[in-house]
Amino acid sequence: MPLPSPYPNLLDGPSVASTIPSSELHRVFRDAGERERISGVPVTKLHVGEPYFTPPPEVAQALAEAVTAGRTDYTAVEGLLELRERLVEKLADQNGVDTDVSRLFVTPGSCQGLAALMQAVAEPDAEILLPELHWPIHLQQVLLAGLRPVFYPLGRDYRTDPESVLAASTANTRVLLINSPANPTGAVLDTATLSTLIDMARARGWQVISDEAYEHFVFDDEHVSTASLEWDVPVSERIVHSSYSFSKSLAMTGYRLGYVSTANDRTAHAFRIVQEANLIAMSTPVQYAGLEALRLGHVVRENRAMVLSNRDAVLPAVRDAGLLPELPAGGWYAVLDVAPTGLTAEEFATGLLETRNVAVVPGTGFALMPRLDARGRVITVEPAPWSRHLIRIAMCVAPSVLRSGVRELLEFARERPGTAR
């Protein structure tokens, strides 16, 4: 007879992580790769945010020189001091954000930085406010941190309406997530909206996490960093924690390099503990590559111009076909509504891949709304009903790929009744 376990809770049901839904992005990524493997025919990949432009050669050279010179030892858990000093200067000069090296952390990609921020600010039974249409990795990070997601509806053009945010909040709300420019919608929040959201959060004792991975890809206006609106607020009273990325601005996706600026010393301490446990230290050669990348501002501007050119050259045809209400104001993606075709998002994406060899992502994967039990495990998960006809396409791919993929997409749509011809 087995002995009774001294840790009975370990045997009581599945782990929290095992109940969290997998990202739809990764499923489509696998499906597209499998189709290529079996058929031998290349898939036109509009499903993934992998840029066609590449990191400048100076970045690779800096990485190689760091390795060759033996700069491969540990750095502090916060990151290379010289890089952090440069990032503090960058945030002040370009973003209007006041921070200090003691509150600035280099991370292996902004994704890991966001996950660590969630853990650093999480409280037992605390709720976090997310838009109904959100990046699925945000939801996974929230659940793994033990936060309970509460969703607010988006307004016209997928913009955040502060009144809707307030209406969704409860007495247990502790965190508000802001993502501008947004993935997947490309929506950009202006200064007035951000100010209202920060004032609302401060009055209610909330923390704010600002995901600004696409900061350099605002097309019709200027990017506003959320934390810039706290410049005159004493550090101890600041509430906006910000995450940034090298992956988008400088196409350094595989380098895995980002950074986080925490609002105050209390959160910096908590973030440091999380990184000590999860990370120990960043890759040292990658940090030297990042240091070189910061000297290449002209490349950032060129990369922005290439994505904007893609948007303006190709997406008006999608809008004219009645599948896109407005051109995205920022970011790398566009959310299409394929309801006129009579197909659901899954049917459209599957049919497009099988008949036209074009991969897109169903929008339902960006609108998952889980129900949790008392321990934070997911009991059920369903997409928001209005997302059932949405798909996301990437506009950061090569111009020829985007033109070809969109041409096939529109021809596929026109074969269905109700689509503009």
TrEMBL record:
The keyword Transferase applies. One of its GO terms (molecular function) is pyridoxal phosphate binding. Its cofactor is pyridoxal 5'-phosphate. It comes from the Bacteria. InterPro entries: Aminotransferase_I/II_large, AspAT/PAT-like, NHTrfase_class1_PyrdxlP-BS, PyrdxlP-dep_Trfase, PyrdxlP-dep_Trfase_major. Residues 43-378 form the Aminotransferase class I/classII large domain. GO terms for biological process: amino acid metabolic process. This is Aminotransferase. It comes from Micromonospora sp. ML1.
